[in-house]
Amino acid sequence: MMWESVWLIVVALLWGSTNPLMRKGGKGIEDVKRESKLAQFFAEVKFLLLNWKYILPFLVNQSGSVLFYITLASAELSVAVPLTNALTFLFTTLMGRILGEDIGGKETYFGMLLVVAGVTLCVFGKT
Prior knowledge:
By secondary structure, the protein is an all-alpha fold. The chain has one domain (2-126). 80% of the residues lie in helices and 0% in strands. It has five helices and no strands. It has helices at 2-25, 37-49, 52-72, 77-98, 106-126. Helix 1 runs antiparallel to helix 3 and helix 1 (2-25) packs parallel to helix 4. The termini are close together.
């Protein structure tokens, strides 16, 4: 269970660190305007696919999805999903802060501490 937990933490790091980068890289998509809904859809897809600031974090994010799928073969589902989701939230918040986003005050950091404590209890309770 220990190695599965390590891989799930890596997945959460890949997902969480790339979420704010994709959000930042996708800025400008709201300026893409086309006449029909279908043309709008394809113009937005083109905008994202040709935007390296979006596509590189997206590919890293998807590598986390592949690793998650592989790790699920040997991990306990009752631990894997809560651990990965909670830590993804934590890493997303931290990366957002690094990128200069407003993440809130002391309450946010206290909440992050509680998330880490809960995940730790969850992992050690299953080992």
